[in-house]
Design goal:
The structure is a homodimer. The first copy, chain A, is mostly helical. Chain A folds into two domains: about 10-50; about 55-195, Orthogonal Bundle (Tetracycline Repressor, domain 2). Helix content of chain A is about 65%, strand content about 0%. Chain A contains eight helices and no strands. The first copy, chain A, has helices spanning about 10-25, 30-40, 55-75, 85-100, 100-110, 120-140, 145-170, 180-195. The relative contact order of chain A is 0.11. Chain A binds a DNA duplex (30 and 30 nucleotides) through helix 2.
DNA sequence: ACCCTATGTTGCCCCTGTCAACATCGAGGT
DNA sequence: ACCTCGATGTTGACAGGGGCAACATAGGGT
């Protein structure tokens, strides 16, 4: 009884420990044997819950996407904002999330950890996150805009925020001092320039 | 004599084999023992040339950056083009390189394989690649533009092409059929919109 | 009370990384 | 021509992880 033979909630515990390690940027030492040790459980107990480490990482990534969507969705549907303002806030929120959960974000998007194509549920969530972007960016366009143009703008926006996130996370933008300021400023520029339709000319200066 | 005891050019051979594996998207099975087997050499021979696998991968990444710069530099200095045209071509060339050498590009930028901060030479080459972008994008701006604005545009451009590359490489943009067309089209939009100064208004429709 | 299944444990094997001790080769000095 | 030394390659040994199979235990449903 002292130590119950069965852990009771090993699956959840595995995920939590993995998340801890991910957040501490220690993904490299996520392994069944190591996790088992840290959870005071025998080395092959984890196999009862995940067929391999990739599965475990994919599950953690899945939860990351879920949290990501939970953060983005409210912003994508903010009331009392112009479409451009919503688009801007969505972009800023996107990059902030990526930086605040940088290791998790890496896990979600870097194919080095697990093959997304083997985890349709993860793919589905990723696709859902993209639809938020597409929905929000399309609202900034003329009704006459073609689907192709809508897809192009949404994809450009995704590429931009994703690229900005990755460059920050991977340390390529160490020179930039005030990240939040830079993020807002560049997203603003992106939104203002890219959503302005041809006829209008381009607005303001700041 | 039959088999010379010494390989003769093991270092180069290791790099080449690694490159082969990288290009075949088999980075995961780059290991000294495996490489040694494939090169018909004993398992710890590689240690005479690289202190560990990370060093080897960093070297391959370094060569990747060198090749990258070799491709970008001529485009950044193309004669007979407007600054905007050069900027566009540089962006298109960037993404094309990334897609044509996708595994290599991943190796170069994903910190999962080696820690770039431990390899100053690699960092230097990465920085050089960025200066090409900054040089080319700045040429599209008013002389009155501040350094901060120049840095911002260059960084936005980098984020955009990097993000676009990563999304393609990691399979997030599988829906897009004609990649080359999409790349040129979106880079064109990016350049035209982002480099147009306020006073000019925005040009053409195409 | 019994059994069945989910869960955890242990033993075993093969893989990799890494070091230390030893072997071989080639180049330079004599 | 010969010797020596450093560079390179080899072998043995150990630690550690992934993964499977056989066994152990607990707890719930009959």
């Amino acid at each position: 009884m002292s130590k119950s033979y069965h852990h009771g909630d090993l699956r959840r515990a595995l995920i939590e420990k993995t998340l801890e390690l991910v957040q501490a940027d220690q993904v490299h030492l996520v392994g069944f044997r190591e996790l088992a040790r840290q959870l005071a459980v025998s080395r092959s107990a984890p196999y009862r819950h995940f067929s391999n480490v990739e599965d475990l990482l994919a599950e953690v990534a899945r939860q990351g996407f879920a949290a990501f969507i939970d953060v983005l969705e409210p912003v994508a549907t903010l009331k009392g904002y112009t479409p451009e303002e919503r688009f801007l806030e969505l972009g800023v929120t996107y990059v902030h999330f990526a930086l605040e959960h940088s290791a998790h974000y890496r896990l979600m998007f870097d194919c080095a950890y697990f093959k997304q194509e083997d985890f349709p549920e993860v793919q589905g969530l990723a696709a859902h996150a993209f639809t938020l972007l597409k929905y929000t960016s399309s609202a900034c366009m003329d009704k006459s805009a073609s689907d192709r143009d809508k897809l192009e703008l949404a994809t450009m926006a995704w590429a931009f925020v994703h690229g900005l996130s990755k460059l920050f996370i991977d340390g390529q933008l160490a020179k930039i001092k005030n990240r939040k300021r830079f993020i807002r400023s560049s997203c603003q520029r992106f939104v203002r320039r890219l959503t302005t339709t041809m006829k209008q000319g381009v607005a303001g200066s700041d």
